[in-house]
Amino acid sequence: MNTSDRISVDLQEGVDTMSYKEDVRMIKALADENRLRILECLHHGEKCACVILEELSITQSTLSHHMKLLCDCGLVDSRKDGRWMHYSISEEGKNRFKDMFSHYLETIDSDGGCSCDKCE
Amino acid sequence: MNTSDRISVDLQEGVDTMSYKEDVRMIKALADENRLRILECLHHGEKCACVILEELSITQSTLSHHMKLLCDCGLVDSRKDGRWMHYSISEEGKNRFKDMFSHYLETIDSDGGCSCDKCE
DNA sequence: CAGATGTATTCATACTTGTCAATATATCGA
DNA sequence: TCGATATATTGACAAGTATGAATACATCTG
């Protein structure tokens, strides 16, 4: 994926600000210690909420809050089974994240000179 | 890089909480619309602060704040040239970021069953 | 149906963070 | 040396967020 691929997503109106906002929302979903722990918890497959809760030092309502953020950004899938909620990494979400990060972390070889009209 | 690679980084004491904290710090460095714009600005090579400033709708002091965060987390290198500051993506930092994200976004095939002793 | 249990929601609170104005610092040019 | 210019720092403030207690909701079990 290259720059123009992503920019083309942004149509006339929202000026491309939309894409940044959504990307920030995705990134923020990862920007928390406990949510990183939760993701590691899900590395090996689906887990139910009570198992995740035992691995963390937080209350149940806080876990529910974190799971909501992870699900809302598309990185985690949820499945309700009776009283229990099962969570797992979404393959599709995972790939969307990888693409996004690749985009911002890429560098494109060029002359590398500063295009500033003042300095240099 | 696999899970044990990263966990081995955390020695006895800080209990591995250190690694999470550092990872969160890195992720938060990306979790802002303007900082994402700055990174795109640097895709094609080194740029001086005044050029970056022209591309964003923020004041100079705000830009300075953002650049500090990006540099402190190791993703951006800075070079002072007289009055001007030149910024560029750090290749090494970029790779550290990629490794970290790969870690949290990986999934390891296994049975996938829930290890909970209550449900199912 | 009634109590127990797993999860979600609401609310209040402490903390973090993005922003700008004002100011400080550093460097250049005359 | 003195003013201009580029960047950094400080301080204040509004907005966002992680947290837990209390409570609501849903589902199971007897």
Automatic annotation (TrEMBL), chains A, B:
<dbReference type="InterPro" id="IPR051081">
    <property type="entry name" value="HTH_MetalResp_TranReg"/>
</dbReference>
<feature type="domain" description="HTH arsR-type">
    <location>
        <begin position="15"/>
        <end position="108"/>
    </location>
</feature>
<keyword id="KW-0238">DNA-binding</keyword>
<keyword id="KW-0804">Transcription</keyword>
<dbReference type="InterPro" id="IPR036390">
    <property type="entry name" value="WH_DNA-bd_sf"/>
</dbReference>
<keyword id="KW-0805">Transcription regulation</keyword>
<dbReference type="Pfam" id="PF01022">
    <property type="entry name" value="HTH_5"/>
</dbReference>
<dbReference type="InterPro" id="IPR011991">
    <property type="entry name" value="ArsR-like_HTH"/>
</dbReference>
<dbReference type="InterPro" id="IPR001845">
    <property type="entry name" value="HTH_ArsR_DNA-bd_dom"/>
</dbReference>
<dbReference type="GO" id="GO:0003700">
    <property type="term" value="F:DNA-binding transcription factor activity"/>
</dbReference>
<dbReference type="GO" id="GO:0003677">
    <property type="term" value="F:DNA binding"/>
</dbReference>
<dbReference type="InterPro" id="IPR036388">
    <property type="entry name" value="WH-like_DNA-bd_sf"/>
</dbReference>
<protein>
    <submittedName>
        <fullName>Transcriptional regulator, ArsR family</fullName>
    </submittedName>
</protein>
